[in-house]
């Protein structure tokens, strides 16, 4: 693109001094964009993923339209599961639906190892292409083992995660085998993204808030520690980010993990997070619903979030969850401009 590379986001991840607070949005590429909807009329979700030129265009669009400080690879947390033997489809209005759910050790043993260069070469090609095209950092990502396991066991989205938690409690050895397999897939997938040029990686543990802190500590924390430790040992070390929704009660556990940035939702204030003794860089945490509020109110609430976040080094402005399909792109652009303008004068 010819412009000077903007590394503000990476500096914030490392808690370095920044000229303003960097901004990006989870699900910043998607159905709220008319251009994306037009592309989806021609391609299925996975077809976009498997076509590097189209996937790069979808990833790049919000950077060009909104002026955000990072791009996030356009893919789904299910992308690496298809090649390891999971029969998954992304169903419009529902999400990932699994035709062969996991219920036994035999099902877990049938899950193959991931060989990224052979299984998802299009993802790696998209990353390489984007590194040539972007003048902001590219974030790679993966789903976390608990969240992936919840889809594998439930067969699709769930409200209570009863089957998942029931499996975890009643079959602890099988559960650990599943965590180990999914951790291997996650590390292999993210390391391949990093080798291909991803400059940061985010691990989405969207549904782990369904667990108590005790259950998280017992059944999940060792696996997550292993993942983030392995990422730190990748030949190219890039910042790592951990996100979960409804997970405020887990933040003290998260703070013990070898991860660089915690991405928090809107249910807890940044002030409260800091009061818990969390000393990592933080990302978040505006309620996405405020995108539907009058702009003056949106600005006021964004200012509250920024004032708390920017009071210490290591802060990235984001939503507390992803952009929803009926959000307004113009509002997102105005919000991005406001964050940049307000924080450049701090």
UniProtKB/TrEMBL annotation:
Domain of life of the source: Bacteria
Biological or metabolic pathway of the protein: Porphyrin-containing compound metabolism; protoporphyrin-IX biosynthesis; coproporphyrinogen-III from 5-aminolevulinate: step 4/4
Pfam families xref list: URO-D
Localization per record: Cytoplasm
Top enzyme class: lyase
SUPFAM superfamilies associated with the record: UROD/MetE-like
Keyword annotations of the record: Cytoplasm, Decarboxylase, Lyase, Porphyrin biosynthesis
InterPro entries membership: UROD/MetE-like_sf (IPR038071), Uroporphyrinogen_deCO2ase_HemE (IPR006361), Uroporphyrinogen_deCOase (IPR000257)
PROSITE patterns recorded: UROD_1, UROD_2
GO molecular function, one term: uroporphyrinogen decarboxylase activity
Signal peptide as annotated in the record: none
Site (Transition state stabilizer): 76
EC identifiers of the protein: 4.1.1.37
The Uroporphyrinogen decarboxylase (URO-D) domain, residue ranges: 22-31, 139-155
Family designation: Belongs to the uroporphyrinogen decarboxylase family.
Physiological role: Catalyzes the decarboxylation of four acetate groups of uroporphyrinogen-III to yield coproporphyrinogen-III.
Quaternary organization: Homodimer.
Name the record gives this protein: Uroporphyrinogen decarboxylase
Protein species of origin: Scopulibacillus cellulosilyticus
Taxonomic lineage of the native organism: Bacteria, Bacillati, Bacillota, Bacilli, Bacillales
